[in-house]
């Protein structure tokens, strides 16, 4: 059905799944059809290298040894890549400063200012979309950049559709980091200050045309910094002045309608001023960049680093400027409180300069329906689309109402779960809320060591990064640490880093949070046991969760049965789904939450598991059973 003229867009939940899908299209689909279908993978521009910026980085003065090694690696890779996708490097982290300098922003410039314009990877990617029959992307890109695909009503398949609404909401959520804007403006001010040694004023010291431009840039950065300072102090005085907190860490304050109304009334002019000033800064930065690229013979090689810094700072400022513009556009929505919730954040209660603003979308059904108008015959697929054997929760999230039965299709699983998996529930596990945080972490560490002290790779799922850190600290001092590689999200590395490490391990124990309830496949013996520490309910105190619950209560509906329970049930099914990925896999799923067997809703959640009745055992009886069952050929 798919052709270059009438394309098929396939969107999945994560970048990892996106890469797996494009490989499937190129291999398995071609085998089924007996011919190749031209397919292309599309991501946000920051995943691609900007050749012009990379070339400029090679002229930096005294780069570090790490930067030099990375530049050499990139040069070798550039002789091999056809896409310019930095993910092809398969690094465990992309946090090196060089990546901040060379990532693409989506703006390829023109042949006049970009000597690599014809070779620019992202520009060529955009051009190659026209020739493709299948476009593979991710939920976030589809939600925010469907217009960039510029296609004529293509077909659409949304994979892992149970995540589409949440991923769309996350894509629409915004964080306005006023502290970051101030930092960027401060760096920009130094670049245009006559008293700074590395200022562009020294580059243009005899240029009567450009020196006034730099003076204007310096004045604008000063105005912008002063505007942010006024904005932060006025907001802080209104909401936080005189308040204290026992916790000296991160502070988040959800704004009610009265607070949002005050923000709109008192700060709209300041926000508009900041938007206008940053826009004028961009105009000047573009002029300076064009001058540098148009008269490179006039400059020293070492000057390139300053112009590159100018370009990088401007990109960050424009990103935050665009978020401020979106905030102004969304103010009526925030005031109405029907689909979004706003919050103020501080790194610490008395750190006025860290004050930032964020807002989250908790109702995206109408936005999704508007998005779907661009497509023909959208299809939503996934292994965990139902709760309580119904599609109602999913369809409500997607903005559909009263769909006919013919709109749904259920297919039987190829797996024989009764033979391939066992579910064990500890009868003596404590209720998390009934003991102190310290005692609960002690219990989990002891239980995990007892269950996972074997030769089988294990993932332990948590609802809290703080609990992961506490349990890891205990496990690190226990005998299990001598022969098991302990991987802990947020402690030994990011989720992406430890996931890659786990995939190449054979004696690994991974402690993970939300992102590990789904994602990378670990077939065969790469994963043989999953331990669920608590039933995966949302934290009720989170701003977006509270907003969803309040909206349901206002409509006379029960937030627990209509929102909290369906979401937790889907996550339970997803966490169980980590175990069995092929028809030859075998695995054990352990639940350490007594609510799974002692509450009515827990027993209801049990029914979501595929044709398996949980076994109840005391914790001390589990290791013997696990060894017997997993070691059985």
From TrEMBL:
Keywords: ATP-binding, DNA-directed DNA polymerase, Hydrolase, Nucleotide-binding, Nucleotidyltransferase, Transferase
Gene Ontology molecular function: any one: hydrolase activity, acting on acid anhydrides, in phosphorus-containing anhydrides
Residue ranges of every copy of the Helicase ATP-binding domain listed in the record: 1-221
Pfam families: Helicase_C_2 (PF13307)
Protein family according to the UniProt entry: Belongs to the helicase family. DinG subfamily.
PANTHER family in alphabetical order: DNA REPAIR DEAD HELICASE RAD3/XP-D SUBFAMILY MEMBER (PTHR11472), REGULATOR OF TELOMERE ELONGATION HELICASE 1 (PTHR11472:SF34)
Protein name: DNA-directed DNA polymerase III epsilon subunit
